[in-house]
Amino acid sequence: MKNRIKIPFKEVKELLGSETFDFPKYSTQILNLANQNAQGTRPAVVGQMSDLIQEFTGKSIKEWEKWYMQKHPDAIENAALKIREMVDNFRIVMSQIDDDMIKNWVKDLVIIKTFIGLKFQEAILSKVSSLIGTTYRLATPSEESIGIDGFIGDQPVSIKPDTYKIKRSLQEKIDVKLIYYTKVKDGITVDLKEML
Predict the structure, then answer these.
(1) Phi, psi of 150 (to 5 degrees)
(2) Do 160 and 182 form a contact (C-beta atoms < 8 A)?
(3) How many CB atoms lie within 10 A of CB 128?
(4) Domain tally for the chain?
(5) Which range of residues forms the domain containing residue 155?
(6) Which parts of the chain sit beneath pLDDT 50?
């Protein structure tokens, strides 16, 4: 007998007496994406599953289903409705996706988002300097070597991700004002507390 074995998820379902479903290729990826966008299986819709499974005292999957449906009788239907609405939205947009859109999406990802992601320090310098009514410039290589990323007016600044705050004591001391940023879904949030 081997030291390690693998039990495929489908077999786990069978071993526990669960129904098994055969989904067409790619369908579960689409449904997962639709669910992420629709938030159909969030606790507000289906309950906090980790808490519910702890409350459950039965043994079988049939007992679990009966118990769950008594506590949340509309949850499966409500989740499915949210997801179906999102799949319908996908159907509409799928008919609009053509070769040009695909090429533009790839260009946006590979060229534009890569450049912006790597060059956003200049965007932060530009935005902050315009907010306080002054100029900015990027640091020279020798200034970068001592931790300066740029200047707002004549003030040297270092631009760091917010995670730097946690690691700050482990790193070299930077004797300039720090501007922290956080990448968020639709851009960056800039923290100017130390700057101001």
Answers:
(1) 180, -175
(2) no
(3) 22
(4) 2
(5) 115-191
(6) none
